[in-house]
User: Which sequence fits this backbone?
């Protein structure tokens, strides 16, 4: 059986491999605690589930969905952006439903990259930023995110040839995996850079609703000129405990969204409209208190983890956003993968190696906060004992 050669360009998906290892350990009777994938451990908010139950019973959701997304969902996204970010979006041309952020980001590569062209990708970053360009026949050029720059890419350091071949740029703040918030002036710099080099800037806005210590995350589209050069992918997965629902939207530049629609209408038939109606219910102001309560849970867990790591001598900066803690590996290990393998084998705890997110993530590991407090405490204590 001959597989496509394009699969040779990408490694197996990191979390699929982690899940395989965990299953093998648990099958052998080992009590494994997974702090790997960022999948909320608490249920989707009741109001969203109730809206979904009603939408499933509505016969209007049982047929093929609209390619652009159900009107109620697009209007709810536009209303949310106006209320939350002060951004006016036309729900007819500047908002489109997506089957989760991962699908959307990958398909943007198909819509905008040809062989010989590149996507500029945050490093470390979500693996689809680099895997997507390769599967689309293009290339990924890494933008190192370094602590001394506040995890902002140095756009001035991009090689002239890469600037000229670039058609996409992937950014993400609050940032996965580092937890960094957007440095002052970066979005303005991105708008100018994208305009000068005719690049579509893509901001992966997966964590704007998951923040702490009074920090309020901005939208990229709040930046003057951003809508002229970019789009934002807004996901309900993390902020609303809806990872399994696959509900997201792409918003911003109307021409870019039209190209995305052109591609998508030839690939799939859109996401189930009952899910979209549930997403519309999620985006109203009635759930702001639920989001705040969920963030308080994550803040408590963040402090718990950071305090335990500090007691173990690990230097860690508590993040103001995301559901992750990013920390340096201890001395004595050749790589982050070696350290994480050691933790799995000796402590039966899954953490993810920073190097899996890109070359600039080497030397770090990521802990997800999506585990109940008592199990999280036990996991960190196991790590501390090592």
Assistant:
């Amino acid at each position: 059986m001959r597989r496509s050669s394009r699969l040779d360009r990408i490694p197996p998906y990191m979390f699929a491999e982690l899940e395989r290892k965990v299953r093998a350990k648990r099958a052998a009777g080992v009590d494994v605690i997974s702090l790997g994938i960022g999948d909320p451990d608490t249920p989707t908010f009741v109001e969203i589930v109730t809206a979904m139950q009603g939408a499933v019973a509505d016969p209007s959701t049982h047929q093929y969905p609209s390619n652009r997304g159900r009107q109620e969902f697009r209007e709810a996204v536009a209303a949310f952006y106006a209320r939350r970010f002060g951004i006016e979006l036309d729900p007819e041309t500047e908002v489109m439903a997506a089957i989760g952020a991962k699908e959307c980001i990958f398909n943007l590569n198909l819509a905008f990259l040809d062989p010989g062209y590149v996507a500029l990708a945050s490093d470390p970053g979500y693996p689809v930023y680099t895997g997507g360009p390769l599967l689309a026949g293009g290339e990924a050029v890494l933008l190192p995110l370094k602590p001394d720059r506040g995890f902002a890419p140095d756009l001035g350091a991009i090689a002239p040839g890469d600037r000229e071949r670039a058609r996409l740029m992937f950014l993400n703040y609050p940032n996965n995996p580092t937890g960094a918030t957007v440095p002052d002036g970066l979005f303005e710099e991105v708008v100018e850079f994208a305009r000068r080099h005719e690049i579509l800037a893509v901001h992966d806005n997966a964590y704007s609703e998951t923040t702490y210590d009074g920090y309020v995350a901005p939208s990229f589209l709040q930046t003057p000129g951003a809508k002229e050069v970019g789009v934002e992918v807004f996901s309900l997965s993390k902020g609303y405990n809806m990872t399994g629902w696959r509900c997201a939207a792409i918003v911003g530049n109307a021409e870019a969204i039209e190209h995305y629609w052109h591609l998508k209408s030839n690939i799939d038939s859109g996401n189930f409209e009952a899910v979209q109606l549930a997403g519309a219910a999620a985006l109203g102001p009635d759930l702001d208190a639920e989001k705040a309560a969920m963030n308080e849970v994550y803040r408590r867990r963040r402090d718990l983890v950071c305090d335990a790591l500090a007691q173990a001598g690990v230097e860690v900066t508590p993040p103001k956003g995301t559901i992750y803690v990013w920390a340096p590996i201890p001395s004595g290990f050749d790589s982050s993968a070696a350290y994480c393998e050691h933790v799995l084998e000796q402590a039966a705890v899954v953490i993810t190696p920073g190097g899996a997110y890109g070359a600039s993530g080497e030397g770090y590991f990521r802990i997800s906060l999506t585990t109940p407090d008592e199990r999280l405490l036990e996991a960190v204590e196991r790590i501390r004992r090592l």
Q: What stands out?
A: The chain has two domains: 5-43+288-385, 46-286. Residues 235 and 248 are 4 Å apart (CA to CA). The longest helix spans residues 288-311. The domain at 46-286 is CATH 3.40.640.10 (Aspartate Aminotransferase; domain 2).
